[in-house]
Amino acid sequence: MENRAQFLPLFKKNAADIFRTYSTVFFLDSVAAGVFISVTTFLIPNIGIMGIVAILSALSVRLFITFSQQTFELLLLNSLLVGLAIGAFFTLNGKVLVLTVAATFFTIAVSAALSHLFTQGARLPVLSLPFILVAAISILAARKSMVSESVLNGNFYDRSWLNIHYENNFWINFFESLGATYFSPHIVAGAVIFIVILFRSRYLAFLSLSGFALGSTVLNNILDQDTVIDLLSWTGFNFALVAMALGGVFLIPGLLSFIVAMLAVVLSAFILVAMQDFLFVYELPVLVLPFVFITLVFLLALRAREDRKQPWLAPQPGLPEVNFENARLAKVRNGEFNSIPLLAPFYGEWHVYQGFNGSYTHKAQWQHALDFYILVDGKSFDNGGNDLTDYFCYGLPVLSPVHGQVIRIQSGLPDNVPGEVDIKNNWGNFVLIRLEGGFHVLVAHLKKSSVLVKEGAWVKPGERLAACGNSGRSPQPHLHVQVQNDAELGSPTVPFHLQSIIHHPSDQSGGEYRLANIPLTGESIEPAAIDEKLLDPLHMPVGRQLSYELFNENERDAQFVTLKVELTLLGEFRLVSDSGASAAFVENNGVLAFYDRRGPKDKLLDLWLLANGLTPLAKVVQKWSDSPSAYLLPLNKVQTLWLKSLRPLGCGIDSRYSRKWVSQNQYWLQKSIHKIRVGRVLCFAEVESVIDPFLGCKEMSLRCGPHEWKAILKEVGLSTDEGIPGWTISGKPQEISE
Amino acid sequence: MQMHDESTPTGLNTSTKKPWIKPTIIPLRTGMLNKVGANRQMNWQESIDGIPIKQLVEDYGSPLFVVSEKKLRNNMKRFKRAFASRYPDVQFGWSYKTNYLAAVCNTFHQEGSWAEVVSEFEYEKARSLGVPGQNIIFNGPFKTPRILERAVREGALIHIDHLDELYALENIAQGLKQQVGVALRLNFDTGYTEPWSRFGFNLESGQAMDAAWRIGASEYLQLIGLHSHIGTFVTETKAYSKEVQILCEFMLEVESRTNCQIEYIDIGGGFASMNSLQGVYLPPEQVVPSIEQYAEAVCTPLMELTHEREANGRPRPRLILETGRALVDDAESLVTSIIANKRLLDGRHGLIVDAGVNLLFTAFWYNHQVVPTKFLPGKPEESVIYGPLCMNIDVLRNSILLPPLKVGDTLLFTPVGAYNHTQWMQFIEYRPNVIMIDEKGRASIIRKAENLSVVTSQEVIPDHLRDPYPGGPLYNFSRYDNN
């Protein structure tokens, strides 16, 4: 019994890994999709069997060697493809079986090697490059020694039942070509695969179609008919894959990434023709070589850009819909995708002396930098300005804007007399901090001997690093901040933004809280102090459980739903509801922010996300805005369908928040209004959240058309862990029970 | 503001005929022995914020208090900058007792200050100006039960001065069924200033910890703040470093022992203004630290002592300052006119002006800067400035070098912004207009001059005393008495 209990989950996990591998060829990452696709490979049993043999051999490696999850997925994918390829070229017999297993181990080695090389060095995906190498070598090596013949040599299936002239039919070519990705150029296989793609992601299906249509058009124009048909059904999937990879998986979907993808498709058609002729000499198939080549080239080229304009590279490959939603939310919240968040490196109100792409030194590859100083009535000093101490910012504390490790410091350079510069030591005294993500933050022109941290020290935001000074290329005391790729001084800068600040426009007309902001020259900012009364109750450690009683207009009885904080393997905190729906969140830099909502519809989680999805923890904040996903709102079926067809990649709500402290009740009242236009109808929701300084969010309510939801906190608790008993507190304060 | 010195006499009459200069009598002395003390009476000042003082006196009369809104705002901005650029969470509470003219209070409130009040009247005044309860810091040894309950209901920050107040507060909280966050006023010896042991709970003797225990044991009170005020006109910045250190150490102790969470530390006030204390040898320019020096002295130890707390994921406590004098003093001047000249028996010159200690209460402990409002020819001689009161103590300056002045000439007393409007008295005189010059250079009255009806408005005369001479003014008193 015990064995069985252990065996079942192990079997489930391995089976899931196998089927998921089938789906990753088309970037689908879904077990269900993999099941359907794997079935289609058995339309030609020889191919299907070899595929399974290869993937099982690869899976067995897990018993002996441990690879990272990423590498493991990569070697599974490539082994599968190698197996399918051998299945297509040789009929199953003992020798071929041995060849398959041998080729699989070779694939594992190549995949692991390339994975290390690519991810550590060029930060590129390996794709199916190992497969191409191993398949080519295996075929060349085996051709002389193997007696068996390819199963695909004859007319292995009859198209006559279709009763159409297939050669000019776009759909037949398209489906056959999709099937050929798994070495089964069968119309049924292709149709199943397309339906699976369509279910998983409409946008990927659209991309595959557009890619194939454009690629085949190009081929038709540069080659004669007969060659095209064969070439298309065997290699046309390259166009679909290129379009999918560049149009939405590795790039954030958008008009520009679509154009880039289509350009790559056209180029890949030429590469395809060239490769075909070149490899023909050795009687080798082209396989996915055009796709791998053009995708890697384009990704490298896009990464080499100096600016970070569109099309943006996705931080991790994913479904276009997910990529788009993450990028959209990031853009709404941070202003720019891929921008590094920093906290203000000082206290109080400082002015921007020179902003991004500034007029003095923030140019070209050093354009992403901010210079700060303090201005009073348009002057940075009083008492004449001949002494450094006359300058308002001179000697003020400089703080760490990030979590990270100090890797280099300089602190012995003298402070210049006002007006003089030291161009030998451009940066003067500085502190260079390495972030966990590999980026580096530089704060420079510090006061002589003021650096308080040592090389190797770990610092956290707000920690005092040094004092503002006038060393290096600095004619007057100021603080220089930039984020750069490398640890070298003067290496190219990358965009960053400041989080949780009060922003004053250059005409000084009042200040407004901004979650994320890149201040311009002449504007001024000050950090917003975090309030313990908000930080404490909204802090959500792993295992925190919040149980709510949920009332809604349809059901008479209240539901009892629990939200629980879980920590994923990748170190992501997620708030998970009873239904399995979840959303990731971060609570740093003075903001509690939720993102990446997954799973089925869930009233309580969606209500929580609307009410508290983005909550600044600074007391001074009274108003802010956000744009979470539209599907958080209680939309009806017609509205949902309408939105999905109009905005297939997803869209955000115009959400405006306001918060005030209600002193007679001793709680925060956080109100939000969410608006979205569906066709001509305005969907409008009013949400309220009551935040108790002891219990946290103790009440939420929503009013949206006919819907009226209300959730009341019943219990706060911490789930039991090994050696740590759980505890709960009921909705009324100060009744703790274990 | 136009400042001149004698070397550039722009106001001098340039006609060939020399003006008549009044003769002066000056005792012969062996020159100045004071090598550091500059002569502070060399200048004169013709205008305030661009408006000629002569014009102001013509429009609003003499004596006249003049407040500069620009100076108030600039002071507040500079103070905020000094602290907020050195510490993450700083809040100023405007000390009402220093100057509670509504226009002055609201200028500070507009600059982000809360209200620091010490009595029922001040609390009600702050509320009537529109300051919400949660922006009021309520200090002082005497809070009436009525106002204490109101403060609790309105969420004010209440600083407990003694145990009886603690009990009263607990009763009120119990009655309202409300958790009340409170702070303790502490007193201790910093080694630099005279400890004010009559206010709050003494730290060294253990009173403070006892009170914290008592609050920790209470079902209705929560200790959320610590408050102390080490003195007034403190010119030694180290005193503040020591104060912060003692408060932080007590914070850590009280948090760990009574399981409370201190949200703020209030270091009170006491920063000196650019004024010259009587008996202090050096001029204020050399004695009084700049606000940046105070800020450095407060924030450096505060940052160090709260570092660990921040490292543990809790924000640093809010720093509250109740600076009064240093913010407002130099933003106000008093214009007063010469009523008469006298020769005193000891040979010194005597001046009588129309403002006395009834208006300038601070003249008891300051040697204010006194300057003429125009260039005056003639040699300065040692003079005494008397007020208009029929009291011997009505002396504004005991000794000052002034050139001869004529009746009707005006003198400018500065800085006079602190404590004069809250401690002045209505003794035999009407209090004059107080005006404010706004940032655009326009003058307006912020407190009207008193008249008979103002001074007598609160009086109630019993019916039988309504008439001073019920029998007619010529009635024979002796005959009346005999009846």
SSE diagram, text form:
The complex is a heterodimer of chains A (738) and B (483).
Chain A: H1 2-24, H2 31-41, H3 45-60, H4 69-89, H5 94-122, H6 129-145, H7 170-180, H8 187-200, H9 202-222, H10 225-235, H11 237-249, H12 255-280, H13 289-303, H14 320-334, E1 340-343, E2 350-354, E3 369-373, E4 397-399, E5 404-410, E6 429-434, E7 440-446, E8 458-459, E9 464-467, E10 479-484, E11 493-494, E12 496-504, E13 512-517, E14 524-527, H15 532-538, E15 544-552, E16 559-567, E17 573-577, E18 582-588, E19 591-598, H16 603-612, E20 614-616, E21 623-626, H17 637-646, E22 654-662, E23 667-678, E24 681-692, E25 696-704, E26 707-718, E27 727-730, E28 736-737
Parallel strand pairs in A: 1-12
Antiparallel strand pairs in A: 2-3, 2-14, 3-10, 4-9, 5-6, 5-8, 6-7, 7-10, 10-11, 12-13, 12-14, 15-16, 15-26, 16-17, 17-18, 18-19, 19-20, 21-22, 22-23, 23-24, 24-25, 25-26, 26-27, 27-28
Chain B: E1 3-4, E2 44-45, E3 47-48, E4 51-52, H1 53-60, E5 64-68, H2 69-84, E6 90-95, H3 102-110, E7 114-117, H4 120-128, E8 136-138, H5 145-153, E9 157-160, H6 163-176, E10 180-187, E11 201-202, H7 207-217, E12 221-228, H8 238-258, E13 264-266, H9 284-287, H10 291-311, E14 318-321, H11 325-328, E15 332-343, E16 349-353, E17 369-372, E18 381-386, E19 395-402, E20 410-414, H12 420-423, E21 434-437, E22 443-447, H13 452-456, H14 477-482
Parallel strand pairs in B: 5-21, 6-7, 6-14, 7-8, 8-9, 9-10, 10-11, 10-12, 12-13, 13-14, 16-18
Antiparallel strand pairs in B: 1-2, 3-4, 5-15, 15-16, 15-20, 17-20, 18-19, 21-22
Give the N-terminus to C-terminus distance of chain A in angstroms: 35 Å
How confident overall, as mean pLDDT of chain B?
A: 89
Alpha carbon gap, first and last residue of chain B: 69 Å
Low-confidence stretches of chain A: 154-158, 733-738
CATH architecture of the domain at 139-323 in chain B: Alpha-Beta Barrel
**Rg of chain B, alpha carbons:** 26 Å
Mean pLDDT of chain A: 85
- Tally of separate helices of chain B: 14
The total count of helices of chain A amounts to 17
Can you give the helix content of chain B as a percent range? Answer: 25-40%
Q: What shape does the CA trace of chain A take?
A: globular
**Biggest contact:** A-B, 27 and 29 residues
